Amino acid sequence: MKIITCLSAILLLIGCQQTNEDIVSVRKWKASDGYNLGDMITFSGNKTRGLYISNDTIYRDGKPEALVVSTEYKLDHYVLTLHSIDHKQTGKYIDKGRAE
To answer: For the segment 31-40, what is each residue's pLDDT rounded down to a tens digit?
Structure first.
């Protein structure tokens, strides 16, 4: 019985994990350090206007602008780390809640 409970818990955790794209695309982000796409950024569902994320690439007006390196959950917020598209600059953004 313990084995079934443990396996169920593991499968539930694996199935509930969000991808970077899921986390990044629905939140507001405030620039914190380094490479900067704007002081406050949010992502649109429009692939040709504004900021849009697909997989690990951030696009501005349909052109690749940056790559998502990681999203890390701190005590009560996420920290987004990204690279410029040429990998020469790194920047951090702080989660400011769900975008509306």
So the answer is: 999 999 999 9
